[in-house]
UniProtKB/TrEMBL annotation:
Residues 85-186 form the HTH araC/xylS-type domain. Keywords: DNA-binding, Transcription, Transcription regulation. InterPro entries: HMA_dom_sf, Homeodomain-like_sf, HTH_AraC, HTH_AraC-typ_CS. PROSITE patterns: HTH_ARAC_FAMILY_1, HTH_ARAC_FAMILY_2. It comes from Agaribacillus aureus. SMART domains: HTH_ARAC. This is Helix-turn-helix domain-containing protein.
C-alpha cells in the first residue's frame, strides 16, 4: 500500500538573519533538502511546507542549525528578532524612511508595540541601546560606501541622512578610531565598530549589506 502524505505548513522565527545574503543562503541550502518547499523567506522569518513522511520539524530545525541560525520560540526573543529586522530595514531602505520617519516612530508603527517597550527588550537582549545600534549600522554602511570608492564623503553623508560631512567624520572617528580618509587608505586599521555583534549575533555567513 502506498501512503500519501499531505504536506504540512510551518513558520519559523530565526535568530541570526541580518542581511539579504542570509536569505540567499537559506534559499540555496534548502534546494537540496528533500521534502521541503520554501514558501517565503525574509529577514528573521521563514515559511515553508514539508512532507512529514520524509522529515520532522525538529530535523528542519537542525538544518537551520547547520547554517548557524537558531529557531526562536520565546515570545520576547521573537519580538527582539523582529525588532532587529526592522532596525536593519530602516537603515537599508535608503533615505526615504530616514527622512520621513523618526526611528522610534517607524519601529513602533512597524511592530505595533510602544517604543519604550521595544527599547527595553532590545537593551536587555543586545546589551546596547537601539540608538547606539543604529549608529553602528550607519557606520557600517559608511564603510561600505567608502570602499566602493564611487562617492564623495559629502554624497555618502547625504545618502545616509547625516546632518553634515563634519558630523559624519567626527562620529566615524569617535567609534572607529580613524578618520574616513584614513579608513580608505588602510581599512585594516579600523577597530571593530560594534564588538557586541560577534557575541550577540551570528555573523559568520552574513554581512550588513543590501
Amino acid at each position: 500500500m502506498i501512503l500519501h502524505h499531505v504536506n504540512q505548513q510551518l513558520k519559523f522565527s530565526l535568530q541570526g538573519m541580518i542581511g539579504n545574503s542570509c536569505i540567499k543562503l537559506i534559499e540555496y541550502y534548502f534546494q537540496s533538502v528533500e521534502g521541503v518547499q520554501l514558501e517565503k523567506v525574509e529577514l528573521g522569518k521563514v515559511s515553508l511546507s514539508y512532507d512529514p513522511g520524509l522529515l520532522t520539524p525538529s530535523e528542519i530545525e537542525n538544518h537551520f542549525a547547520n547554517l548557524e541560525f537558531s529557531v526562536v520560540k520565546d515570545r520576547q526573543e521573537v519580538l527582539f528578532e523582529e525588532l532587529l529586522t526592522a532596525i536593519i530595514t530602516f537603515i537599508n531602505e535608503g533615505n526615504y524612511l530616514r527622512r520621513h520617519y523618526k526611528n522610534s516612530d517607524y519601529l513602533s508603527d512597524k511592530l505595533a508595540v510602544p517604543y519604550n517597550k521595544l527599547s527595553k527588550v532590545f537593551s536587555a537582549r543586545a546589551g546596547i541601546t537601539i540608538e547606539r545600534f543604529l549608529i553602528f549600522l550607519k557606520l557600517e554602511k559608511v564603510k561600505e560606501k567608502l570602499l566602493e570608492d564611487q562617492y564623495t564623503l559629502g554624497e555618502i553623508a547625504e545618502k545616509l541622512n547625516y546632518s553634515s560631512v563634519h558630523y559624519l567624520s567626527n562620529q566615524f572617528k569617535k567609534y572607529t578610531g580613524i578618520s574616513p580618509r584614513e579608513f580608505k587608505k588602510s581599512p585594516e586599521k579600523c577597530r571593530l565598530t560594534a564588538p557586541f555583534f560577534t557575541a550577540k549575533f551570528h555573523t559568520k555567513n552574513c554581512k550588513f549589506h543590501k
